[in-house]
Design a protein that fits this description.
With 66 residues, the chain is mainly α. The chain is built from two helices and no strands. The longest helix is centred in the first third of the chain and has 26 residues.
Length: 66
């Protein structure tokens, strides 16, 4: 019985701490852009493909100097 006297307040304290961290994250904008990461993955892939195409063509190609 004395174990419950310790465990119940500890569990309530951990629950309140978790709730507090959740509200802190909401206030700081952690959940504002949920789809942005999914779109950034696609954008990064396209940027890497463009970079690979330019390196295949060569850095000096098209820059003719006399």
């Amino acid at each position: 019985m004395s174990g419950l006297a310790i465990l119940i307040p500890v569990a309530l304290g951990m629950g309140l701490a978790g709730l507090g961290f959740f509200f802190w994250a909401m206030r700081n904008g952690q959940f504002d852009d949920l789809d942005g990461a999914a779109h950034r993955v696609l954008i990064d892939d396209e940027a890497e493909e463009k970079a690979e195409k330019t390196t295949e063509a060569g850095p000096d190609e098209g820059n003719e100097q006399p």
